[in-house]
Fold each of these.
Amino acid sequence: MATKKVVALTGNQAAAEAMRQINFDVAAVYPISPQTELMGFFAEYVANGEVDTDMVAVEGEHSAMAACIGAAAAGARTITASAGPGIAYMVENLYIASGMRLPIVLLDVNRALSAPLSIHCDHADSMLTRDTSWISLFAENAQEAYHHILMAVKISEKAMFPIIVNYDGYIVSHSIENVELLDDETVQNFVGPSGIHRIPYPLLDIDHPVTYGATAQPDYYTECKYQQHVDFLKVYDIVREVFDEFAEISGKKYDFIEEYQTEDAEYIGISMGSSFGTLKDAVDKLRAQGKKVGAVKITLFRPFPRKEIAKALSKAKGVVVLDRADSFDGIGGPLFKDVAASLSDSENKPLLHNFIYGLGGREVHEEEFMKAFERVERLEKGIDTRENLVEYLQVRE
Amino acid sequence: MSYELKPWHEIPIGSIVPEPGSSRINHTGSWRMLRPVLNYDKCTHCLICWIFCPDDSIPVSSKERYETDFEYCKGCGICAVECPYDALEMVPEMEIKLQELE
C-alpha cells in the first residue's frame, strides 16, 4: 500500500496536484473561470520545472482541443481543462478527438452557459458533451476529482477514447477540503510510463506514416461509426478494471454508481456531482421521520450505467431525478431521460419525476430535496397530479 | 473507381489510413470543370506549374514537362495562374467534350 498524506486543498489545487504527479507531456489550455485557477497552479509547476509538460497557451478552446488532438495523435500524454462556454467552443473538436480514438483528458470545471452570463456551477456545459463519445466521470468533491484524474489517464489509454472529468465549479473547485494524496511514485507506477507507443498509430513513429482525419464517403462512414459504437460499449469493463486496480493502491473502491440507503427505499433520489452530499442529508432527515428513502449518485455518466441504475431502482415506487441542467424539450433534463431509458427492460416501473435545481450556482439545501421527495410520494400515491414530467425546484414566485 | 469495401471490424482504429498513397485510388479528375490546355509552343519547361500543382498531376522529368495527368487533375487552374509564359489556358471541359463528339 502506498504512502498517503492528508492535505487541505481546493478542488483546483487537488486537480493540479494530480496533473503534476502524472506529469503529462502536453497541456494545451485557454483560461476561463472557474478553471483559470487550476491552470494557474499547474503553470507554476511548469515554470518551476517540477513537470516536463509542454504547456501550450492557445488562443481559444477550439484551438486548445485542436492542439490536444495533434499532441495525442503524435503520441503525447495530453490534458486540457475548461468550463462552461469554453466547453461549448470545443464541441466540434471533441467529436474529432473521439472519432480519431485519441486518449486525451479534459477537466470540465462545471459552469453554466450564457445567456445570461454566469460563471457559476451547473451541468449545462457537460451536457453538451454527452453525445460526443467521450467517457465522462462526475466527481463529488476534491478528493474524488483528484482520484478521477489519476484513473482517467489509464481508462482513456486502455479504451482509446478521450475522457472528461467533471467537478463542480466553485463549489468543488474553490472550496478547501481535506484531500488524501498518494505519493508520486505510486501514481507514476499506476499510470505507467508515457511514450508514443502507448497508442497504436503514433504520428511520431516516422517509419510508419499514417493519415489521421481522412474523409469517409457514404460507403465507409457508417462502418467507422459502428466500430466506434461497439468499442464504446467495451468501456464499461475497462472502467471497472481500472476502478479495481485503483482500489488496490488507494483503498478507495469506486463504482459506476454509489448507493445510499437504497436497500429498502421506496423513494430514491438521483444526482451527480457535489449535490450528492446534500441529497444524503435530505435522506437522513426523511429517514428520521420514518420515510423509506434512499439516494443514488452517478459517477460514470458516459457510457451511462443503465444496468446498475435499473438494479438500484428495481424495488422503488418513485424516483426523484435531479438535473443540474435543463433540456428545454418538453420532456425533462438529460439525466431524467437517461434514467427513464435505463428502465426499458425493468419489470418494476417506478414513477419518475424530474426536478431542475442548482442552475447558475444556485445553492441547494436538503429542505429543497426533501420537498422533491414529498412531491414524488404524493404523485405516486395519486394525491398530486402533474401536467409536466419536469419542474423547477427553486424558483422564486 | 473500384476498391474493396472492408467490413467495420477491419477498419483501423480511429479510421486512420495506415498505408500511404490512398489518393491514387480516388480518380479526382472526374471533378474537373475546366481543363488546363497546354500550348507547347509557349512552354519553356521551367516546371513552375509542377511546383505549384497541389495534386501532383503534372508528370515531369528533369528537363521536360509532359501532358497533365487528367485522371487526377481537378482543374483548379493554379498552374494557369502561375505559368510565367501564359502557356496554359483553362478551357471548359464541356467545350472539349463537344469538340470531341464532332
Amino acid sequence: MQAFLNDPMAMILLTGALVATSGALLGTFLVLQRQSMLSDAISHSIVFGIVVVWLLTHAQSGPLQIAGAALTGVLTVFLTEMVARTRRVKRDAAIGLVFPALFAAGVLLLNLYARDIHIDSHTVLLGEIGFVWLDTMPLAGLEIPQAVVWMTVATLVNLGFVLACYKELKLASFDWQLAAALGLAPTLMFYLLLGLTSVTAVAAFDAVGAVLFIAFVIVPPATAYLLTDRLSLMLLLAVLVGVASTLCGYPLAVRLDVSIGGTMASMTGVFLVLAFVLSPRYGVLGHWLNRRVKYSG
Amino acid sequence: MVTQAVQRWIVALSFSAVLVMGASGARAADVVTTTGMIADVAANIAGECLSVEPLMGPGIDPHLYETRPSDIPLLRNADAILYNGFNLEGQLGKVLARMAESRPTVAVGPESMKDDDLIKGAGGYAVDPHLWMDASLWARIVPTVADVLVRVAPDCESGIRSRAANYRQQLLTLDEWVSASAASVPEQQRILVTAHDAFRYFGLGYGIEVVGIQGISTDSEAAIADIRSVVDRVVSRNVPAIFVESTISRRTVETVVDGARDRGHDLTIGGELYSDAMGARGTPEGTYIGMIRHNTRTIVESLGGSVESWPGSLPSFAGSGRSNAAE
C-alpha cells in the first residue's frame, strides 16, 4: 500500500480522478442550472480573499489563506444571488458583475498595499498536479499525499450530498417553481450546491490548480449532457468522462513533455468534441444521417 | 476489496502509460538547478565529475514556470538541488522544501549573500531575487555551489575547488569589464528602462539608474500611471533607448516608445536583454558570462557608450560556444 502511495504516477492519476469525480458530481447540476461559470468566477474572486487575509495576517500561504479563499468563494455566490434576486439583471450578468468587482478589489488592494510583495493567486493556490505525491501527511500509519486526502474527503462529501438530496436537486434543476411549491427548498439546495462547489474549488485549486478544476466541473457534464436525457446516467457519464480524461491526459503529457494539468484539461475537450460529433441522438453526424434518411425515404 | 481492485487497475494503467511514453527523452542529472544561470555556474565547477541540468530552459520565466512530466524524475533522482531563493521560484517553494528533507537542497542566493548586498522592497518583506545581474554578486555563489558539489562527489574535491577558484576569478574579471564599459556611457544617459524590475542589481553594481515599467512579479501589468511617469523621465533625461527582455512581451515597452514619440522624443528600442533566463544552448548567450556580455554590450552601446575590449582570460566565444554545445 505504501509503495502505491509513494508512486508519483499513481498519485497523479488518483488525484486527477478524484478531482474529476468531485467536480463532475457538482458540475452536472451546475450545468443543468446554467451556473457552471460560477466555478470560473470563484477562481478569480478568491484573489480578493487572498489579499485580505494577507493584509490581516501577513500569511502568504497556509490554512488561513485556504479558509479565506473558501469564504470568498461563498461570498461570490451570495453576492451573485443578491444581485440576481433584484431581477434587474439576469443571473449570468450577475455572475459577470460580482466576480470582476471582487477580482478588481483584490488587484487594487494588492497594488495599494502590497506592491513589492510577491503574492498572487499563484503563490497561494497554484497546485501542481505533477507534484501531489510530494506533499504527504501521516494518516492511519501511512504517508498519504495531502491532495489525495482532501480530494477524497471532497468527493465523499459531494457524493453524499448528491445521494441524500438527489430528488431535491433533480427537481430544483428542472422545475424550480414546482420544487418550491412542493416544499423541497430549491434555494437552500442551490446554496448548498454552490457552497460545496466553492470549498471543493479551493481544495482542488490547491491540489491541481484552477484551470483543470474548472475544466472538470464544466466539460465532462456538458459532454454527458449530449449523450443522455437521464439525470442519473448523466452523472455517471460525467464522472467517467472526467476520469477518462485524467487517464488519457497523463500519458499524452509524458509523451509530449508538456503540462500534465493542461493535457488532462485538453482531453475533456476532446471528449466533448467526440460527443458533439458522434452522439447518437444529439451529435452532428447523427443529425445529418437522420435528415438524409428522412428525405431520401 | 473495492479499493484494492481500483488500486490494481490504476497501477496497471500506470504501467501501460509507461509503455505508451516509451523512450520519450527522459532527462537525468546528478545536480538539478532551477535556472540556467545557476546550472551554468555548477556545470563550470563540476567539470566531468557531475552532470548538471536546469529545470527551466532558455526563455522560460521562473515566475511563470510550469512543471513538465520529465521534471518529476529529474528532481526525484537528483543527488542535490540548487535554486536561487528569495521567492524567485515562487510556486516551487513547497516542492523544494520537501526535497530538502531527502537531499542537499540549497538556495544559493540566501546562502551566499550578505544582508547589505540585498535590495529590499518596501516594508522589508521582499528581496529582489535577480542577483545574477551583478557579476560580483554572482561570483559569491561559486563557493556555495562548490560546497554542495563536494558533498555529492567528495572524490572530486580537489578538481571542484580548483575549477571553482578559476571560475570565480573569471566572474570577477567579467565584473571589472562590465564596470569599465558602463562608465563609458555619458553620465546623464546612464538610465536603463526595461519592462520589469529585473535589473536593479545591475544598476546598483554598475552605476546605472534603473527604471522598471512594471513591478517585480511578471504577473501584474504596468499601470497607466507607471507608463506615463516613465515617459516623463525618458523625455526629460533625453534617453536614447529602452530595452525589451527575452522572457517578457514587447508590448509594454512599445507603449512607452509610442508615448515618447508623441511628445517629439525619438526613442528607440535598444535591443533584447536576457533577464530571467539565458539564451539558447550552444550560443554564447546560453552561458552566464555570454549573457552578461550580451546585456552589457546592448545597454552600453544603445545608451551611447562603448564597451572595453573583451578580456583575454574569459571565453572568447569564437566558433560555436563552449562546453554547453554538447546537447
Amino acid sequence: MSTTTAPRAGEQPATDEAGPLLEIRDLDITFNTSSGPVHAVRGANLEVYPGETVAIVGESGSGKSTTAMSISRLLPNNGKVTGGSIRFDGKDITSVPLGQIRALRGSEIGLVPQDPMSNLNPLWKVGSQIDEALAANGVAKGAAAKQRTVELLEEAGLPDAECRAGQYPHEFSGGMRQRALIAMGLAARPRLLIADEPTSALDVTVQQQILDHLDTLTAELGVAVLLITHDLGLAAERAQHLVVMYKGQIVESGPALQILQDPQHPYTKRLIAAAPSLASRRLVSAKDRGAEGEATGSGDGGAAPVGGSDAPAASADGGAAAVAATAAATPAAKAAASDADTSGSGRESTGTDADIVIRAENLTKVFPLRGKVPWRSTPFTAVDDVSFDLRRGTTTAIVGESGSGKSTVAQMVLRLLEPTSGRILFEGRDIAGMKGREMMALRRRVQPIFQNPYGTLDPMYSIYRTIEEPLRLHGIGDAKSREAKVRDLLDKVALPAAMMRRYPNELSGGQRQRIAIARALALDPEVVVCDEAVSALDVLVQDQVLHLLNDLQAELGLSYLFITHDLAVVRQIADRTVVMEKGRIVEHGTTDAVFHGPQEEYTKRLLAAIPGGSIPLAGSETIEVDVDTDVAESEDARAEDVDPHHPLGGDPEDPFTGAGHV
Amino acid sequence: MIWYIVRRLLQMIPVFLGATLLIYVMAFYAGGDPIQAIMGDKPLSPAVQDQLRAQYNLDKPLIVQWLIYVGKVVRGDFGVGFNGRPILEQIQTAFPVTFRLALIAVAFETVLGVIAGVISGLRKGTWIDTTLLMISLLVIAVPTFVIGFVAQFVLGVQLGVVPVNVGRDASVVNLLLPGFVLGIVSFAYVLRLTRTSITEVATADHVRTATAKGLSRGGVISKHIMRNSLIPVVTFIGADLGTLMGGAIVTEKIFNIHGVGSVLYQAINKSESPVIVSVVTIMVMVFLLTNLIVDLLYAVLDPRIRHAK
Amino acid sequence: MRSDQTARSLRPAAEHFVAPLDETPLQKVDAVDTTATPRSMWGEASHNLVRNPVFVISALLILLLLFVAAFPGVFTQYDPTKGDLSISNQPPGDGHLLGTTRQGYDVWARVLYGTRTSLTVGFFAMVISTVIGVVIGAFAGYVGGWVDEVLSRITEIFFALPLVLGAIVAFTALSNGVGTVTIALILALFGWTNIARITRGTVLSVKYQDFVTASTALGAGRLTNLAKHVLPNAIAPVIVTATVNLGVFIVAQSTLAYLGLGTGSVSWGGDISDAQPALRNNPMMLFYPSFALAICVLSFIMLGDAVRDALDPKARKR
C-alpha cells in the first residue's frame, strides 16, 4: 500500500541553515489516566520549514492538537512526551529546562487557540491581554505596548481597534475575539505560529475572512504556520503540506494537492470521500442505489432514478430536481391522495397543497431585549416575515449563519416557541390553536433532532428508556411490544440491540445522535426537524449519519426540515434550500438552483466561503474508496456495527460507492 | 453598573422587611403568649399585662405591630432592656469590640485560607496538599468551642502567652487568639473553596493561552489564575459573615469578651426577648449590608456582572 | 491558496509519506464497543465509591454511629440521666469505662447516648431542609420569571438569618420545652437556603438542555419534565451538600446546647459546656464528648467529599 517511505530520523542534517524550523521525530506522547496510560501520539514525524504552512488534519482524538501542544510544552499535566524528539530551529528542545521553553513561547512559537469564547480571560481588557504578551517577550512596555497593541489589533483586521482594546472579551463577538487571539499569537512576531482550529467555532464567511487575513499576515511576516484542523478542504486550501493523523499516528503526509488528488492510505481516501465540502451533489439513498444500480453517478446527469415502483418517472430537466424527485417519489405510494401531482420535477413548482406537510406563513418572532434602562425593553426581531413550504418526503434546508434566526424558526415549527405573528400550518391546519389530544397528535407527527450529541440524551436514562420514553408518554403498546419496537428502531439506526442497556456516557457522539434519531422515529413521525443535527460530528461520522438520515427518508417517507449553518451539508441532503440572514429569507429555491445560480450577493458569499470548494479534484470519479476488506478488523466485522448502506460499511459491488458523493 | 447597584438595593428592601417580620413573629408569637415572651416567667397581674400590651402595641394587629417596630428600627430606636438601659446603648459599647474581633477573624481566614488554598490547588496531590486538606477536615469537624477551650487552656493557662480572659481590655493584641479561634472553621472552608477554584481555573483554556504567550509562571498565576479563582471566594466570605456572628457568641463567651455576642448570650440566659430581637435585627442588618458590599465587589472584580443590565 | 508563494521552496523534495497499513490499521467508523458492562451514572458512582477508602471509612463509621444511636444500651449498663453524687468525679476504670462527671454521671454512657441526640437532630434537620430547599429551588429555577423573583427573595430572607442566630431567636420564644424534633425543625428552617440556591442553579443549567426540549417535543408536560428529567439530573450536588449539611446541623445543635439552649436530653454540646469549668483538673471530661462530636462530623464531611468525587461530571467520561 505504501509507495513512499518516511524520511527517518537522522537522514537530514538538522542544523542546516536551510533546514526545517520545526522537526518532530518519532514523537510519542502518553497521558496518564485513571484507567492506565493512553498513547495519544505514536511515532509522529513532521517538519515545518520557515515560512510555509503545514496542516495537520484529523478527527477528534486523532492526536493532532496533542502533537501541536507538545511543541511548546502546553500539554495538560498528565500528558508527557515519552519518546522521540522535537527540534526547533535546529536545537533539540524535547527535554531542555522549562525556562528555555518559556523563552521560546510567544517570541518564537506563537499560538492561536481553538475556542475564542474560552481563550481570553474574561476579567481583563482585551488590550491588556495583548500588552502583557508584548511585555513578557520584551517587545514593548507601558504606553508603547498599548500603542503597539492597537496596531496589532488593526493588523488582525479588527475595526476601531483603539476603542476595542479597552473593552472586555464579553463585549466582543466570536470573530472579533478570534482576531484578538490572532493579534496576541503574532504579537511578539514568532517564527512559528501554531493555529489550533483557529476558526472552527465561527461562521463560514467570518472564517474565510479571518483565514484570508491570517494567510496574508503570515506571508508578509514570513511566519511558518502549523495549522490544526478537522476540515480537509480547509487544510488543502490553506496549506502547502498536509499531515493526516489517525488514532495517534501519522498515516500520510505530503504536498497538499498530491494528497487530495492521489491519496494513498485508505484512511485518507475515506476522509476525502466523506468530506462534505468536497462533495458536489445530493446523496442517493441506499434503496435507490440498489434499485437503479446502472444509473449514472455524475452530478448533472439526465437520467433520473425512480423511487417507488408505482410512481411515474421523473422528467429530466436538472440533476437536483431529478434527485429531489427520487426522494419525493417514495412516499407517493403512501400519500395516495396526491398521486396525480407526483410526477417528476413538476412537483417542485406545481404541487398542490396536499403535498405540503408544513407551511410557514409570514412567520415573525420578536423578542424583548433589555434596553438601556431596566423598565424599557427594545424589541429584537429574530425572525422576520419568513414563509416556506416543506413538501412530503423531501428535505427543505434552512441555512444561515449565527443570528440568522434559523433555529428560532425550527423552535416555532416544533411549537416550542409561539410566533409573534404569522402561522404554521401542518397539513393545512394552524398549529397555534391545537390543544390537548390534538397537540399530542401533532407532537407524534413532528419530531426534532438537536445539535449537541452530549446534551440530547438524558444521562440518567438507559438507551432503552430513552427510546421507549415517547412510546410510554403516548401510551403506546405494552412492555413487550415496546421492547420489540425499541429493537426495531435500534436496527433502523444501525446499532446493535445489545446497546439497549447502556447509558449515553458510554457512547460516542455519532452513536448518541443515532439514538436521538431512533427516539425521534419512535412515534413514526412524518416530519423531522433536524436542528444542526450533524454539525457537531466528525467528518466520517457526519457522513455516516447523513447517509442514515437520507436512507431513512427514502424508507419511511420522512420530510425533513434541516436547519444548518453548513452549506456543504445542505448540498448533500436538501431538495430545497432557504437561505436566511438576520431573520429574513434572502434566497429560496431548489438546492440546485441556489448552488448553481445564486441570485443574491449574500448567498454567493456563503457559497464562496465553503472551504475547499475551489480545490480541483482530479478524477474524483476515479477515487476508489477501499472497503473494509483490506482492513485489519474486517474479518470480525459485525454487520450491525456499521450502517450497512454506508459506502465504507459493506456493499463492495455498489457502483455508487465512493463516486456517489465525491 | 448603576442599574446593577439600583437593582441590588431594591432587592434588599423586601429581604430586610421579610427578615424583620420573620424575627418579630418568631420571637413574640412562636411561643404562644407574647407577654410571656417579653417578660419571661415572671408572674404578672392582669392590669400589668394590659399595660404591657399597650406599651408593646400588642393590642393592635400583627402587621401594624410589625410596621411600628420596623419604623422604630429604621429610626434607630431599638427599645429598652429589662435593666432600663436602651438596647442601642448596650450595643454601642459592645459593637466596636465585636467588629474588631470579626475583622481579625476575616483577615485571618482570608489571608491564610487563600494562601493555603492556592498552595494546595497548585500542588494538587502532593504531600503538602494532603496535609492541608487533612488539617482543614479536622478544623471543620472539631467544633469552634472545643478549639477555643483547648487554645485557651494550652496557650493561656499552661503557657501563659495570651490572657485567659479578655474582659474589658479588648485591644487588638488581646483579641488575636479569639479572632483566630473565631475564623478557624471558615479558614478551612476558604482553603477548600480556593483549592477547588484554583484547580478549575488552572486548567482553563485562557490560562494555557496566557502560558503560550510567554508569561512567566508567576505572571500566569497572579494575573490569570488568582483573580479568576478568587471571585467565588469573595462571595463565600460575605456569606460566611453570618457564621462568624453565630460563632462570635461562642467565642465571646469562652474568652469573656464584652461584645455583641455576649450581650446576646446574657439576653438568652435571661430570656430577654426584646433584646434578643433587637440584637439579631442589628446583626441581620450588618449582614445584609456586607453582602451588598460583596455583591458590588463582585461586580468590580467581574466585568461581565458589571455590564449586565 | 498559498501554494504559489515562494516560501515553499525551502522544503526539499516534496516527499509523500504513507504509513504502512499494518502499522496503522483502519478501524470501522464509530464502532460500537460491546465489551464493557453497561453502567448507569449511579452505578458508576457506586462503583467508584466502594473503591474509595475515604468513602469506606466514613461509611463504616456512620454505620457504627447509627448502631450506637439506635442501641446505646448494648454498650453500657448505665443510665446517662441518673447521676449518683456518691461516685462523683471517678477516674476511668472500675466499672466506669471513662470515669464519672462531677454530678456522678457515667461519661461513657453519656457519650453513647449523646450520639442519639446528635444523629436524630442531624438527620431530621437534613431531611426537612433538603425537602424545603429542593422544592423552593426547583420551582424558582424551573418556572423562572416572577416566581423565581419571589422565591429567591424568600430564600434571601431566610439566608439573612444565619443558622445559629435564627435558632437562638426561635429557641428563646419556645422557652417551655424544646424536643429533639423541634430543634431539628428550627435548624431546618434556617438551614435550607444553600440547598435551595444549589438546586436553583443546577435546575437552571439542566432545564435548557436538549434532552428536556426533546421531551417537550415528545409531548411531555412541564411537571413531567421537571420530575423525570430535570430533577434527577440536578440532584447530585444537592446530595453532596445535604451530606455536608448533616455535619453542619450536628455542630449547630451542639453549639446551641453549649450556649444552654439544649433539649434536656443528653447531648455532646451540653456535656462539653459542663466540662468547661473542670478543664484544669479533668481535661478528659472535655475530650470525650469533643472527640465523639469530631468523629461524627468528620464522617459526614468525608462522606460528602467522597460522594462529590464520585459524582463529579468532570471525572466521568462523557
Amino acid sequence: MKYIYDLHKTMLANNLILIYEGEFTQEITKSVLAMAERNMDSMGEESNIKRKVFNVMVECLQNIVKHSDEVDDQDSDQPTAIFMIGKSNGDYIVTTGNPIKNENVDKVKGRLDKINGLDKDGLKQLYKEIIKGTEISDKGGAGLGFVDMARKSGNSLDYAFEQMNDKYSFFSLKSTISGQM
Amino acid sequence: MEILNLEGTEDTPKIMLDKGNGIFEISGRSLPEDTAEFYQPILEWLEVYAQNHNDKTEFVFKLEYFNTASSKLILDVLSALEDIDGTSVLWYFREDDEDMEEAGEEFSELVEIPFEFKTY
C-alpha cells in the first residue's frame, strides 16, 4: 500500500493538482475540464489566466482523443494516456503523455521544433497559413492544436519521446502558462 | 425560411439563425467532439439563405471560447457569409479577453467582410 503514500508525495513534490490516467473520450475531456475549472475557481484565479489554461487543456485533451495511437499489443494493460495539471511558482503546467507510433515521431518532432523556433508574429503567420490551407482531417483536427498551445501559453512546448518497444514511443508534452501576464 | 435554433451546451455553442427577425448569432463555447458535423447544418442553412437573403445581415459572434477545430469551421461560416451582399460581423469579446479580440481581428483579415468589435 506504500505506493499510495508515494504517489501522494510525488503529487505534492511536483505541485500537481490533477492527474488523469486511462481512456480519453470527449465525455472524459469535459469532466476533466470541469474539475480543473472548479479548482482554479476555488483558488480565485484571474479570469484571463483561467481562460488560457482552459484553452491549452482543451487542445491537449482533444489531441489525445484524436491522435493517440492505440497500442494493440497483447499486453494492452499498458497505460492509454495521461493528463496532468500542476501549479508551480504561480505558473500552470499542463502535461500529457500518450503512445504514438515510432514512424510518426519525426513528423511530430519536426512540427514542434518548427513552432518552438517561431516568435509571436511567426506563430500568428503560421496559424493563418494553416487555417487558410487545410481541410478538417478525418480525425477531426485542423492541425492547429500545437500552434494554438504555443500562442496562448506564450511559451515554447517542451517535449520528449521515450521508445516503448519496436512499434511505439511515449510522447510527453509540457506547456507552461505563466501566472503573471 | 425555417429558423435554426440550437440550445448551447457545455461543449457546443448556442445557434440562432432567424431570417424573419433578422437574428444571426453564434454564442457560447465551441469545442464539439465532431466539429464538422456540428457546423454542417449551419453551413447548409447559410447556403439556402444566400439564395434569398435580407438586404442586411448582421452576424453576431459572441463566443466565450472556441477550440482550434472550431476556428476552421468559423472561417468556413465567414467564407459563406462573404458571398452574401450586405453582410457585416459583430464580434463580441469580454473586456479582459485579448485572445478573443485578437482571434476576431485575425478572422477579419482573412475575409472581406466589415467587422465591428464590441465588449460585453
